């Protein structure tokens, strides 16, 4: 029997060293592996290169690592909602590789599937393909590091020649993900929108660490319900169903007569 359960989040992330690269699940604050992020913050790991759709908010999600200046580089598709992110990027303290959202998802999936690169039409005719997007600024506001020119090739699509840009896959040293349930073999089930980038991040990490709200025995999850097979998961930590889950922006509608 392959039992992948670890006793605590702190033990599960203990070997993540300074300078490591991480793929982290979540979209906004939905599906953030907050217990693993907090454990990483507590142990003092720094100089991290993180791939995630966004960087949380100022006081939650990956934002707590950012506030502690533990992140060297972010590879993301959306970086709003976080004033400290803006400050660090514009001051030259943080490197940012801005990537179209669908492209980022496919780069992670490709990395986890052993695919080195792929061609996509997304970004053709823009700085995504032509280069020059600022990745890091100098303190005086000049560009220290810019995105490179990417390979663009023409392919025949339904009798019409169309340009495609080459995007390289992403793999990372570790992956941190959140799931609603999992078994001791690492098979995971995600809840609704919290599924988002979590399976893709898990696939891309050479070592995947999953926090789950409920841990069950192997065989208790119907195989047809498994969203991510245990082959992609190396460590699993139970964090309980009462773990705090924040909402990025709460929007309510007043009902008639309220």
Automatic annotation (TrEMBL):
Pfam families linked to this entry: CoA_trans
The alphabetical list of record keywords is: Transferase
Stored PROSITE patterns: COA_TRANSF_1
A GO molecular function held by the record:
CoA-transferase activity
**Carries keyword Magnesium?**
no
* Origin superkingdom: Bacteria
Supply the SUPFAM superfamilies for this chain. Answer: NagB/RpiA/CoA transferase-like (SSF100950)
Which InterPro entries would you find in this protein's record?
A: 3-oxoacid_CoA-transf_A (IPR012792), CoA_trans_fam_I (IPR004165), CoA_transf_BS (IPR004163), NagB/RpiA_transferase-like (IPR037171)
Q: Does the keyword Transferase apply?
A: yes
Q: Which family does it belong to?
A: Belongs to the 3-oxoacid CoA-transferase subunit A family.
Q: What is this protein called?
A: Putative succinyl-CoA:3-ketoacid coenzyme A transferase subunit A
Which organism does this sequence originate in? Answer: Microbacterium aerolatum
């Amino acid at each position: 029997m392959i039992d992948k359960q670890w006793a605590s989040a702190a033990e599960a992330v203990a070997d993540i060293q300074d300078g490591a690269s991480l793929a982290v699940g979540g979209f906004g604050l939905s599906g953030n592996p907050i217990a693993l992020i907090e454990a990483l913050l507590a142990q003092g790991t720094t100089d991290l290169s993180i791939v995630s759709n966004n960087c949380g908010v100022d006081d939650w999600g990956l934002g707590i690592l950012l506030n502690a200046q533990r992140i060297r580089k972010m590879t993301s598709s959306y970086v709003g909602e976080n004033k400290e992110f803006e400050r660090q990027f514009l001051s030259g303290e943080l490197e940012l590789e801005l990537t179209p959202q669908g492209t980022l998802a496919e780069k992670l999936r490709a990395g986890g599937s052993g695919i080195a690169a792929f061609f996509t039409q997304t970004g053709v005719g823009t700085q995504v393909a032509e280069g020059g997007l600022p990745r890091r600024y100098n303190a005086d506001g000049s560009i220290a590091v810019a995105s490179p020119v990417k390979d663009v090739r023409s392919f025949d699509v339904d009798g019409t020649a169309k340009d495609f840009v080459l995007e390289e896959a992403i793999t990372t040293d570790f992956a941190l993900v959140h799931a609603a349930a999992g078994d001791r073999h690492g098979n995971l089930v995600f809840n609704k929108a919290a599924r988002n980038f979590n399976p893709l991040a898990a696939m891309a990490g050479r070592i995947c660490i999953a926090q789950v709200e409920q841990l069950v025995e192997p065989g208790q999850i119907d195989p047809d319900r498994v969203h991510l097979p245990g082959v992609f998961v190396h460590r699993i930590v139970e964090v309980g169903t009462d773990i705090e889950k924040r909402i990025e922006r709460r929007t309510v509608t007043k009902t008639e007569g309220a």
